[in-house]
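Q: Given only this backbone (403 positions), what sequence would you predict?
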């Protein structure tokens, strides 16, 4: 195993280990032929040692292949898939376990102009259009360009962020909003406020059914055009939205709290914006992890659920190393963080308690980019079984599964 590649199953290595155990067994047999109790203890010790050596250090090394599932371009030609959400329930046209994917670009490949969400059905391996939102939605400042911020609640409501542009550049971007859709994909309401300015990163969500808490990064504050060498504005925030979800009615915002602030964001011609993107909660909800793309690091904010003031950028837990502009992030079943890189086709596994970067795994080796996979990886979501994860390759508009 190198520092840059997660190990895969190696049958040759396994066979070598078995031969080694056999040789040791024969040696112990000759030595302890007349002491069967000691011989049995030796065999148990050998087997136990072999099992301990085979234990995986992390989640990535339990995955063996990447499989392209479907092209995500709907009939209107929208492209550049960003957010990925696995449906937690069956509701409306969505079945539990379906994979919702939104598009950031329109058919002309202009960023910040995509308006569709597609629904991939793993059981039939087919895709349908879940929602097509009006591009010029008046209640959403600047209109609609669907970002990496999306979730589906247990109540069936889908909430998706808009980071819109008129011409595909940040020079004409609007503040955007959060669009609320019912389980049929129909527009239900729009959430906007002074705290909402270009919802950018994948959401961390605590969903209690009749209420929910969303954490969303806002990357638009201060950011303007991308001409020349655009400045970095350290004004990006992480916003907490506490929602009430009345029976049969769209979610309403009960409380807004800026729990993180001062993160860097920058206009970029190639990727529209660079800013804090990945958000993930620890299992006990005591820590909120933030992937800070500009700082090339992962930070943590403590007590996010009960915080009533900003923690600033929080505490850095790891930086640089295998990270190359970290983007989307999710918590693996073992509690480790999986973080996609923007500047190559790798996903990095991190132990959050220590900040140790275990290794990176190539999940996009497309050599059309330099390095391979550069700029292709955005959304990431665990499979319902926890035995792999979904991701998108936005250069070729595909949904892929790693298992």
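A: Predicted residues:
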């Amino acid at each position: 195993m190198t520092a840059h590649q997660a190990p895969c199953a190696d049958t040759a290595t396994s066979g070598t280990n078995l031969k080694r155990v056999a040789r040791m067994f024969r040696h112990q047999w000759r030595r302890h032929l007349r002491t069967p109790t000691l011989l049995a203890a030796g065999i148990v010790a050998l087997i136990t040692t072999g099992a301990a050596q085979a234990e995986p250090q992390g989640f990535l090394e339990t995955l063996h292949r990447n499989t392209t599932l479907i092209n995500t371009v709907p009939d209107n030609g929208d492209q550049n898939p960003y957010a990925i959400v696995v449906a937690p329930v069956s509701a409306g046209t969505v079945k539990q376990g379906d994979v919702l994917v939104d598009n950031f670009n329109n058919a002309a490949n202009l960023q910040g102009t995509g308006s569709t969400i597609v629904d991939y059905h793993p059981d039939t391996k087919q895709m349908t259009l879940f929602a097509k939102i009006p591009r010029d939605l008046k209640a959403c400042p600047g209109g609609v360009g669907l970002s990496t911020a999306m979730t589906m609640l247990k109540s069936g409501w889908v909430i998706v962020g808009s980071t819109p542009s008129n011409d595909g550049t940040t020079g004409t971007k609007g503040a955007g909003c959060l669009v609320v859709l019912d389980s049929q994909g129909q527009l239900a309401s729009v959430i906007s406020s002074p705290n909402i300015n270009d919802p950018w990163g994948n959401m961390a969500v605590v969903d209690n059914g009749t209420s929910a808490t969303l954490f969303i990064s806002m990357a638009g504050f201060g950011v303007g055009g991308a001409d020349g060498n655009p400045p970095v504005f350290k004004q990006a925030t992480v916003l907490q939205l506490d929602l009430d979800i009345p029976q049969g009615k769209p979610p309403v915002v009960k409380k807004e709290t800026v729990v993180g602030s001062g993160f860097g964001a920058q206009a970029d011609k190639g990727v529209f914006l660079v800013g804090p993107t990945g958000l993930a909660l620890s299992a006990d909800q005591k820590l909120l992890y933030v992937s800070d793309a500009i700082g090339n690091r992962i930070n943590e904010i403590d007590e996010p659920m009960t915080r009533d003031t900003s923690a600033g950028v929080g505490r850095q837990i790891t930086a640089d190393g295998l990270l190359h502009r970290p983007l989307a992030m999710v918590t693996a079943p073992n509690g480790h963080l999986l973080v996609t890189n923007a500047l190559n086709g790798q996903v990095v596994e991190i132990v959050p308690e220590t900040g140790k970067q275990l290794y990176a795994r190539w999940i996009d080796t497309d050599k059309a980019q330099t390095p391979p996979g550069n700029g292709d990886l955005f959304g990431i979501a665990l499979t319902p079984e926890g035995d792999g994860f979904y991701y998108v390759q936005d250069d070729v508009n595909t949904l892929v599964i790693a298992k």
